Amino acid sequence: MTTKRTDKSDLLGWPLPGFISLPYFEVRIEQRGEIGTLAWRRAISPAAPATAEIARAFVSLPRPIPRAVIKRGEERLRQKFNQLDAAEVAGSSKEVLLTLFRRKGGKASFARQIPDGPPPFFGGHGVLDDFVALADLSDSHILAFAAHWGPLGICKHCKPWTHSLAERSILNVQPVCAPLGANESKGLEGWEPLEIWRDYSRDARGITLEVVELKNSRKRAKDPEEQDRVSRLLARIAKWVRNAATPLVTFEDRDDELPWPCGFGATFQVTSVYQILAIQLLGIVAGGRDLAQCSHCGLPFAVTGRRAGARRFCATCIKAKAPINYSARDYRVRQARRTRKGRK
Question: Which one of 34, 214, 262, 296 counts the least CB within 10 Å of its CB?
Answer without folding.
Answer: 34
